[in-house]
Design goal:
about 70% helix, single chain, mainly alpha
């Protein structure tokens, strides 16, 4: 028969980080890793960041044109 698991002792409340801080830092870690992967692509194609920044503007212009044609 298996032994019952011992519970891990919990950290004191003052040592624990709040949930919102954990979610923000987790997102920052993911964005940092994504940026590290994109640096070589940006070095090979210097126009790519400009295109990525221009993409939402082009979508907005397309939406305005479609809306005016209705």
């Amino acid at each position: 028969m298996a032994q019952p698991r011992r519970r891990k002792p919990r950290r004191p409340q003052e040592d624990r980080l709040p949930g919102w801080w954990k979610s923000i830092s987790r997102r920052a870690d993911v964005l940092g890793r994504l940026a590290e992967r994109l640096v070589p692509a940006f070095e090979e194609r210097p126009w790519l960041p400009f295109l990525l920044l221009l993409f939402p503007v082009l979508l907005l212009l397309l939406a305005l044109v479609v809306n005016s044609l209705r």
